TrEMBL record:
Organism: Kushneria phyllosphaerae
Any Pfam family hit: DUF481
Name of protein: Salt-induced outer membrane protein
């Protein structure tokens, strides 16, 4: 038996889709504050018994040229009473729009804690430059890049400081009056380690308040610690989204 449940609350459809990266700057009709909360639960029983709990939250507020975004995520997976995945993430993003141009500056601070990854926790800070290449009713694309710093605290008790380079892309496409697609991708490269992140999702609106969404989230580490169970984590989710 497979059961999937998700609830999402938000004020802005585009902002709610942009949990992965900083949302675009406010438009003339945007509210000064928006928020999103998403809860998901998946249970599989039969030959195997697994449970997955997902939780995401975002708060965004605008102050003239500034866009401030706070985000939190949690994921827990249990297989036959044993925890096989446990992840926590908290981040703060700042975006400063450069006048009426499509260019902006950004800053990011992110804390991650993930069991079975070989790390006890990771703390990353990034600053850089971004550009909104286009933003129409049909599609939107933004690119950003910059230098960063990461502190890795390992499960075995060691730690390491490193510099990194950051590249990211955020694309959205309106498939029809009721369907949309988003693809978000980032690369964080250090001297002996590259972290890739990808988020893909298709949403279909049933009515003004209800939508169905299918998403696929990937995080890949090219050179994880020896204690890590795998190089790549993948999460596929089907959810029901309620908007009000």
């Amino acid at each position: 038996m497979l059961a999937v449940m998700a609830v999402c609350w938000h004020h802005s459809a585009r902002a709610a889709d942009s949990l992965f990266y900083a949302p675009p700057p406010p438009s003339d009709d945007s509210v000064p504050f928006s928020a999103a909360i998403e809860l998901g639960y998946t249970a599989l029983s039969g030959n195997t018994n697994t449970e997955t709990l997902l939780g995401k939250g975002r708060i965004t507020w605008y102050d003239q040229a500034w866009t401030h975004t706070t985000r939190a995520e949690v994921k827990n997976v249990r297989d036959s009473e044993n925890t096989t995945a446990e992840q926590y993430l908290f981040s703060q993003r700042e975006r400063y729009s450069l006048g009426d141009s499509p260019n902006y500056l950004f800053g990011l601070a992110r804390y991650e804690k993930e069991r079975f990854s070989g790390y006890d926790n990771q703390f990353t800070t990034i600053v850089g430059y971004g550009r909104q290449l286009f933003d129409t009713d049909l599609q939107a694309l933004s690119l950003e890049a910059g230098p960063g710093y990461r502190f890795d605290d390992y499960e075995n008790g060691g730690s390491r400081h490193m510099l990194l380079g950051y590249l990211a892309a955020d694309y959205s496409l309106s498939l029809s009056d009721t369907a949309s697609f988003i693809q978000q991708f980032s690369v964080e490269g250090a001297d002996d380690n590259v972290t890739l992140r990808s988020y893909s999702a298709i949403s279909v609106s049933i009515n003004s308040s209800l939508a169905l969404r299918v998403s696929h989230d990937i995080k890949s580490n090219s050179n994880p610690p020896r204690e890590a169970d795998a190089h790549t984590d993948r999460t596929t989710a089907a959810s029901v989204v309620y908007n009000f």
